[in-house]
Amino acid sequence: MSQIKLHRDTDWSKSIARDRVFDEAICGLTRQEERVLDLGCGSGELLYRLKKEKQVQELGIELDSEYVADCLARGLRVIQGDLEESIIDFDDNAFDLVILNQVMLSVPNPLDLLENGLRVGKRVVITFPNFAHWKIRLQIMLRGRLPVNKDLPYEWYETPNIRLATVDDFMNLCQQKQITLLEKQFISQSSNGKLRPINFRPNMRSSVALFCLANHHQNIKED
Amino acid sequence: MKQLPGFEPAGRISLGLVTTSRITFKGDNYILELESGNTLSPVTVAYETYGRLSRNKDNAILVCHALTGDAHAAGYHTGQPGEKPGWWDLFIGPGKPLDTERYFVICSNFLGGCKGTTGPTEINPATGKPYGLHFPFYTVKDMVKVQKWLIDHLGIEKLLAVIGGSLGGMQALQWTISYPEMVAGALPIASTARMSPQAIAFNEVARQAIMSDPQWNFGLYEPDSQPASGLALARMIGHITYLSEEAMLSKFSRRFINGKNRGYKFEADFQVESYLHHQGSTFVSRFDANTYLYITRAMDYFDLHTDYGSLKKAFSGCRSSFLVISFTSDWLFPPACSQELVKALRTAGKNISYCNMDSDQGHDAFLLPGNRMGEVVSGFLTRLQNEL
Q1: pTM score, whole prediction
Q2: Contacts of A5 in chain B (CB under 8 A)
Q3: Which one from B330, B338, B359, B364 is the annotated catalytic residue?
Q4: What pLDDT band is residue A146 in, cutting at 50, 70 and 90?
Q5: Is A81–B354 a contact, with Cβ atoms under 8 angstroms apart?
């Protein structure tokens, strides 16, 4: 109960715009009628779109009962629960695509979540805010303050991001763990909400990042 | 069905007048073989239907009632001013979650009930007297068997959904196991796959309240002289378990019946007491004591884990989609019961959705407004229809 309260206190509505930044890209990475698991699916915006445009067999996991009710009311398949606990029960390769849209940094064990994602899904899409963006660097260096902006819309005392990561950190992890990178996309979001794709020096210049990874079972096949 | 304008709760359209039908299953094809090893024949079933069965017969929803419910789930019987509508009128009717413009809704009094279906109050053809304690023990599985007869009789090969709260949810679960090919969707609400020892304990106290009333007389009371105090007490105990601490606090607080003054008496002094007394005494006029004993026993014996080896095995052959709903403040069938069920269905690879609704209304939340169950159920049913 106390755990649920803890999560409920986060005002997820603050990051609604940020969480939709990569919807188009994720839609593009999804194939027709795939089995899709969205971990931390919120009110189901993305799943609804994937179901409509790609006729996916959807499943969402979401902790907040209000969001779960939103999803169910619009006819989506959703199970209320903690995503780290829930993912353990799924069989290997139970899904074609696992989506971790802006949730990896808000869990206590991001690496476990990532590895479990790669176990239950053939592909995993991960998005997260890039803490090495030049504006954040400047902000800390010159003002000595943690960033609060469109990509990180929370004060330090209320942020759900209990982990921090940069584009290079994540790529380094993928290299270490020998995870196959299928696709990466970077976006810079300006203060007026304008989105711009970043192809050059993403660690410095992108404010949000998307990675699509292939799971180990597929690597073996490819070898 | 006639509309009765101005007669329904504000903003909602009622079904208007409805009637209860009865069908008797008799003859060699209808010898009910009970789980206990006994048989029962003939079996009469009281039921109501609302809405129209589609040409393809693919829009039927079976509603299963809880402990003290009956076939009268929605609409009105007489239309007299002050008449209360069916027990789930909030939920069933034109434009409501179980939309009778879209769905054909069926509700029957379950086997062993006292509202028109064969049960302890009905006449035993062998003796010409009410069955009383000669009525055989029955289980949730037996109830579902009889419901299947009714669904067959109505010419329906596959139900779009089976829905029920509490004991009704147990029936919905049993349906997906007993007749997997007949259920597209199952909606167990505030329910459980097995009775907890705590819930059995409350049932036992209720039964002891009835059986220790001298009027009970080993079940041999006349219909008009029920063990009133025992049955009322049983109902009072039940009602405590249906509410939550928060619900009681907001409903009654510590208010006295007479304003702020203590009465210095043992008769009802607090408002919560008079509420319970009222619930108890009105119950006696509408429910039968022996029936209460049998139904609570059927609940106690419900245990899908043991019946099928494990919960996962229980559902291994089932093909239904599930929507499981629990309520945060339900401490009789707490969310953990639903979550155990959800986990089993999920690991068995079944198509399942689950919502633990925020509510301070306790176990009874599924009968009350003020939560989002309606839109959630409606969204699920629409999806079921699209997937047919």
Answers
A1: 0.93
A2: none
A3: B330
A4: confident
A5: yes
Measure in Å the smallest separation between the Cα of A55 and chain B Cα atoms.
Answer: 12
pLDDT digits (tens, 9 = 90+) for A16-41: 777 888 999 999 999 999 999 999 99
- Give the closest residue to B44 by CA, choosing from B108, B104, B130: B108
Q: Is B72 a catalytic residue?
A: no
Residue B256 has what pLDDT? Answer: 95
Query: What ipTM, to 2 d.p.?
Result: 0.91
Average pLDDT along chain B: 94
Q: Do A72 and B379 touch (CB under 8 A)?
A: yes
What does the angle CA B192 – CA B193 – CA B197 come to, to the nearest 5 degrees?
75
Per 3-state DSSP, chain A is made up of helix, strand and coil in percentages (nearest 5) of 40, 20, 35
The Cα–Cα gap between A105 and A128 comes to 7
Q: Which of B14, B108, B166, B326 is catalytic?
A: B166
The pLDDT, as a whole number, for residue A152 is 84
Q: Which helix (H) or strand (E) holds A35?
A: strand A35-39
Cα(B271)–Cα(A42) distance, integer angstroms: 42
Nearest residue in chain B measured CA to CA from A78: B353
- Best mutation target among A57, A79, A90 (most B Cβ atoms within 10 Å) is A79
Are the beta carbons of A69 and B343 separated by less than 8 Å? no
State yes or no: is B330 an active-site residue.
yes
A97, A218 contact by CB (below 8 A): no
Calpha distance A76→A127 (Å, rounded): 22
| CB count in 10 Å sphere of residue A204 | 15
